[in-house]
């Protein structure tokens, strides 16, 4: 699963804004977003949050596709969240095999060259699960900070960043199109409908989060 997310603090005060944008995103051709002026707010920043789990082939393919994308000279940081499988119940031979695979992955990630910005690796020694990885993937510090969250079994198009940036320019920074009802965009067909699938997480007496 992959998703670009943005954060806005004044959603509750904008109830008068229509949830409908000036044109349908689903019927807008890709070329429109790729041709939009890409001159965002000076504070604009985007970080890639890559969620990985003990899959060397998938992770290396995903990283190479991210590295081959077009960033147009922008600074794009890369944060990798890598977790290893639980090995406490494994036999000695299996433990050695899993540890060797984890070492191979960590060596590859540490040595992977990311020339577009900062590279940060968060290596978890405990398997917390994919749900926790998503929930902890991004903590925005400003209204001009954006995140692209992607799982390691995906491969991105070389044009994915230009498309995402076009969306941000058109639906966030363009005041004529801005809507507080839009908080992110998915680059793949959503497989889950909130309330029907996934684990229910009760945050408080009146809130439920589905992921």
Structure description:
By secondary structure, the chain is an alpha/beta fold. The chain has helices spanning 30-34, 56-67, 92-111, 130-135, 160-173, and strands at residues 2-6, 45-53, 76-83, 119-124, 145-151, 184-186, 200-204, 207-210. The strands form two sheets. A six-stranded mixed sheet has the order 4-3-2-5-1-6. Strands 7-8 form a two-stranded antiparallel ribbon. A hairpin with a 2-residue loop joins strand 7 (200-204) and strand 8. The longest helix has 20 residues, at 92-111. It starts with a strand and ends with a strand. The relative contact order is 0.27.
Shape: elongated
Strand order of the largest sheet: 4-3-2-5-1-6
Mean pLDDT across all amino acids: 75
Structural class: alpha/beta
Query: Main sheet?
Result: 6 strands, mixed
Number of DSSP-assigned strands: 8
Low-confidence stretches: 8-26
Helix/strand order: EHEHEHEHEHEEE
**Rg estimate, integer Å:** 19 Å
Span between N and C termini? 11 Å
Quickly count the helices. Answer: 5
Helix content: 25-40%
Question: Which strand-content bin applies to the residues?
Answer: 15-25%
Task: Quickly list its features.
211 residues; two-stranded antiparallel ribbon
Task: Describe the structure concisely.
It contains five helices and eight strands, in the order βαβαβαβαβαβββ.
What's the topology here?
Layout: E1 2-6, H1 30-34, E2 45-53, H2 56-67, E3 76-83, H3 92-111, E4 119-124, H4 130-135, E5 145-151, H5 160-173, E6 184-186, E7 200-204, E8 207-210
Parallel strand pairs: 2-3, 2-5, 3-4
Antiparallel strand pairs: 1-5, 1-6, 7-8
């Amino acid at each position: 699963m992959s998703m670009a997310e943005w954060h806005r603090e004044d959603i509750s005060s904008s109830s008068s804004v229509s949830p409908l944008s000036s044109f349908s995103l689903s019927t807008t051709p890709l070329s429109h977003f790729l041709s939009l002026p890409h001159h965002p707010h000076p504070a604009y920043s985007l970080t890639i949050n890559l969620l990985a789990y003990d899959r060397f082939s998938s992770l290396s393919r995903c990283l190479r596709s991210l590295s081959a994308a077009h960033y147009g000279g922008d600074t794009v940081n890369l944060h990798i969240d890598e977790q290893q499988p639980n090995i406490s119940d494994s036999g000695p031979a299996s433990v050695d095999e899993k540890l060797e695979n984890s070492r191979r992955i960590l060596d590859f990630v540490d040595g992977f060259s990311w020339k577009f910005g900062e590279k940060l690796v968060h290596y978890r020694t405990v398997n917390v699960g994919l749900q926790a990885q998503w929930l902890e993937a991004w903590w925005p510090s400003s209204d001009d900070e954006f995140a692209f969250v992607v799982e390691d079994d995906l491969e991105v198009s070389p044009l994915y960043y230009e498309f995402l940036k076009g969306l941000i320019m058109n639906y966030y920074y363009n005041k004529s199109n801005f809507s507080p009802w839009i908080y992110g965009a998915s680059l793949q067909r959503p497989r889950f409908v909130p309330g029907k699938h996934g684990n229910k997480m009760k945050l408080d007496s009146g809130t439920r989060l589905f992921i």
